Prior knowledge:
Layout: H1 2-25, E1 29-38, E2 41-51, E3 57-67, E4 70-80, E5 86-96, E6 99-109, H2 119-126
Antiparallel strand pairs: 1-2, 2-3, 3-4, 4-5, 5-6
Keywords: Signal
Signal peptide: 1-27
Region (Disordered): 27-129
Amino acid sequence: MRTIKRAMVASALALPLTLGAAGVASADSFSQEHSHAGPNGSMSHSVQSGTGADGGSSYDESMTWAGPDGSSSSGTSSNAGADGSASFESFENSAGPDGVSSSNTSASTGGAGSSDEGSLSGLLGGLGL
């Protein structure tokens, strides 16, 4: 009888504890960093993400390295606002024995109530279309 009561109590507590543990597993931010140095060079990598009290969110990742054949840095960043605004950027820069390279890609949009118009939208609006 005592074993049955213990099993019933354990079963009754399992669901609330499981739901409570799920809440503990969530987070408003995340951060991870790694660095390494050795005889052939060094590197660093970082990732961060988070949400704000206003409902916005962000993500950033960056990496740099240097060695006997050159160096490089790269990164990606994205943000989303609670008002619908969003942005994205990705870049890469490198230098080595064969030359130098750099690239950048970015995009953004305004949120609700934004007065930003694209070129085509402005042209069509100006034509009354």
